[in-house]
Amino acid sequence: MSLSMYQASIPVFIRQLNNLSNILGIAAAHAEEKKIEQSVFLNARLAPDMFALSRQVQIACDSAKGGAALLAEIEAPSHADDESSFAELQARIAKTLTFLQGISAAQIDGSEERTLSLKRRDKETHFQGQAFLLDHVLPNFYFHLTTAYAILRHNGVAIGKRDFLGTR
Fold it and tell me: Can you list the pairs that 53-57 forms with residues at least 24 positions away whose Cβ atoms lie under 8 Å?
């Protein structure tokens, strides 16, 4: 049995965003227990030229919703990128999950050969649907998920691979 575009995208995004939500919950509890201001974690970064945790979460959500929307040929919801607490980041993940859960297999399947145009600030890139998902969306999504995880782990939050994978 072959793997469909839907199976390779929407369930993956949903599972990993749920795992990210759980990780942020652990981080929020850690901050409260240790009496550390949430902003310490939200503004933390691995290197001076990298985005902070809050931006990593925003981009992970944007990668999932934007990639899914382009594959389904629908409009992605817009978010203000102004989250300043774990609760607000959780709300953003929840809004993204709600959007993703509203996309059907019929909307995504068949997109593997479709030519898609990704418009960025300075250029437009064209992809075939399958290459867009496998070579662009999923790597970008996992990069920002992993970086968010690494920022929290680096800052002492007791999370591990099982939390990232959602197998705890």
Answer: 53/148, 53/151, 53/152, 54/83, 54/84, 54/89, 55/81, 56/144, 56/145, 56/147, 56/148, 56/151, 57/20, 57/24, 57/83, 57/89, 57/92, 57/93, 57/144, 57/148
Please tell me the pTM assigned to this model.
Answer: 0.95
How far, in Å, CA of 48 to CA of 156, rounded? 19
Q: Which domains does the chain have, with CATH numbers?
A: 10-165 (1.20.120.450)
For residue range 42-97, what is the model confidence (pLDDT) as tens digits?
Answer: 999 999 999 999 999 999 999 999 999 999 999 999 999 999 999 999 999 999 99
